[in-house]
Task: structure prediction
Amino acid sequence: MRVVFLHGLGDGDPELGWLDGLNIGLTQAGFAPVDSDKVIAPRYRSHFETAGISAKVPPVTYKTKDDSDARLAFERRQAAVQRFLGYEAGVGTFGYGRVPDAPVAVIQQAAIKAVPLFDLPHVKRYMQDEGLRGAILKYILDHLPGTGEIILIAHSLGSVVAIDLLDNLHPGLHVRRFVTIGSPASAKAIHVGSDRLLKRFPYGRVDDWSNFLDTGDPVTAGRGLASTFQGAQDFTVDIGHKHDSKLYLGHTSIAKLIAQTLYPTNSVALRGGDIAVRLTDNEATILLSLHFAHAVQRHIKDKDAAVRYASALTAQQDEVVAQVEMNAGSVGIARELAELAGGTLPRLPHRWKMHEAVGELVVLSLTNLVEPYEIDVERAPREALLDMAVELGFQRSTGTKIGDAIEEVKTHIGRKSGLPWGRVLTAAAGVAIIAAGPVGLALAAPVGVFGAAALTGGLAALGPGGMVGGLAMLGGLAGTGAAVATSAATLSGGPVEPVADSNALVLRVAAEYARKSLDLPYDKGLWYDITDLESQLSARVNRLAVYSDPGSPKLENLRVGQRIVARLMDFMLEKNLGPAELVSAEVDVDRAIEKARRTMDEDARLEAWNRG
Result:
């Protein structure tokens, strides 16, 4: 495999300083350096200095009409890159402080006008001079092989040329890894008067694209490429606010990413050890979640939605496998996890009693298991309940009754409260689910709900790429009898809003009603958790209403919580879900009211008779 490097302007780097930097990074990471005869580094500086140079722009060779499958595969590989770099020290993924567009434009425009050392003036010329652009592209293509695989690395001006080149490459040439460093390709200044750069990304030709920048690099002005190019995935590194390709490629994490493709290793198939390792409860819950998601996918009627859901689920399953492989080196793994890592979804163990299973299934049926993707699955989760009841060793009718119970709660609560049914009730668990990449998620739970930490043991290690969000389901949430504490700490350290707890109680009411429908024991003390929350919500509303605007979003949010709680209480009374003494008292009150009403009616009739 050849390494192709497209340089920034300068002198074209005739001494291959970029390669020295890459080899330093490779050596520090424990890999062999790359020989100069294994690289292709065409120098095109002279094209900017030759008057009248011109050529026709090479034809577009990527003409696939439908590359939707290739795009899904591309996104899966991008997620793998994000996971890999997410664990690398010194690499920033998402959420770094970007310079706003206005300052970026000013900085980069100033560089174009006043700093000829940088490439931006030449980038603008490349973009606006059709003949020059054609000559450079043709020159580079003449240096590239017609077939095979390459790693394409491009710096500064070279990154703009490389992006432009992707859909003009020889049809038999495939880019195994595309790495851009210090790229100014998102600068608005260079796009003014030009509309040429890569309007359609060649997903079937490029395996992945990682763009690295130092936020202090004046050519990038701290701005990545993802906002301009759909295929790009941005990462930040610290090279001392410089723009040097040697420093970028000498960064160990960038070198490791290149080595991953340059020196591929065959992953060793995982298998359970000689000593039987039992699935932890959390690992079993993750498998249950995967099975439920697969059942949902089977019942999605819309073909396009089913395909997208299946692809999103595959990406989520990749996350689980990556976590399994990471943990496998230090501890033994259960046979089921070894099967999962080998590409087979293992059978579910029959370890859930019906009472526990009901709680799990209620939560799963109301959860988006391919978070952060949003796909309309219509009634598929309800139909999946029947399949899952059988997989867990129960009758299909059990799944039907659970589904019916959920529908009754949804109808009673959701009709007027505006609950977002069909999506994961993130706040319901008092849980923060935070996006950390195209696919990876970090999960954090308050101590009051799950004990010392979320998902302890087994697959508990939550790296920067995170666990699986929807798939790292929170075992036993709906089955716990404890109230969801309103003071539970979130990631920010602040209190959970009571409205979040009202959503949590919706799940618990649904679970307890399903249990009652199946003649199982249910938590009759749940009523007191709801009345306690009613008091907290009312106290918060009364205090904030004194000084807040009448239409305050926070007040409205709290009032939504009040409406949810009121309807939950009404539902519980209607279905006799409260404590026996409360139900008895409620019946006695109803009887007394009815008796009083009849007495009043009788008195009114007698009075009317006497007047007549």
The longest strand covers residues 172-181. The beta strands are 2-6, 39-40, 147-155, 172-181, 209-213, 233-236, 432-435, 441-444.
